Amino acid sequence: MDSVLMTIDPAISALRPHIQPLTKNLPVPIRDAISSLLGEVCYKRLVVDIAPTSECASLAISKALGIGIVSLSAIVKLPQLLKITSSKSAEGLSFPSYLLETTAFAISLAYSARSGFPFSTYGENALVATQNVVIAALILHLSGKSAGAAAWVAAAAGAGYALANEQIVSMDLLGQMMAGAGVIGMAAKLPQIYTIWQQGGTGQLSAFAVFTYLFGSLARIYTTLQEVPDKKILYTFFAACTLNAVLAFQMFYYWNSTASAAHAGELGKKPERIAMGEGGTSATSTGASQTKVKGPTTRRRA
User: Fold this and answer.
1) ∠132-137-140 over CA atoms, to 5°?
2) Cα torsion 168, 170, 175, 176: sign
3) Predicted TM-score (pTM) of this structure
4) For residues 277 and 297, is the Cβ–Cβ distance under 8 A?
5) What average pLDDT does the segment 60-81 reach?
6) For 265-277, what is each residue's pLDDT tens digit?
């Protein structure tokens, strides 16, 4: 970071006289918000003096990444929800995977919140866990298990209350659970990885969610190193990043499989040769299915 700052220092020095009249007279609400986010020392160095140090620049990057991740997490599962509701199919999605992932997110959320870590380092856990509960309920409902879907939502709400309550789950016990959250997170990805391999395609799995998860877990490793002095959290993100990379590889490998939905269209690109139900599995709300294949019919061209 020091070498980067030295490289851009001439540009900063040239711009400083023009920018400082603005940064020194920010509206009070904006000034207070940035100051509370960066701290008084780094606020003065970065905003008032415009003389960044390596420590303050690293903190600012971490905060920006954290806020970006939390903001994006509000919609990260929206494409997945839309694919399920529009197709009325949960093909390629694994309920055990969502159950385990939600468990890991809930533990991490409770542990981070009760430990007093900055919200920007864990806020996405709450948003993604909530979306996961909805998706998992839809998976059960479309499999003809509506009663199970209702029970799942009730159980998730009860577990969330228990984790947040010191009277029910002590901090010592929560710390032990957090130590196992990384293992749970890894176990959450394995059913999804196996389902994709077994069906020979990604089905209704959202490419947007998969790639966002991968980049988000990479960014979280950085923000954790910068702001959270807890190796349990760091190891959890390392584990998540590893298996998110496997899912991203499967998404590329099975991109043009007939058992994969139109991922290109979801990412705003022109779909190539993708079709549902030709040689793949077509699990709809009625539970009907066709023959399974274990490899892509057409691999993506470089």
Assistant:
1) 130
2) negative
3) 0.67
4) no
5) 85
6) 555 555 443 333 3
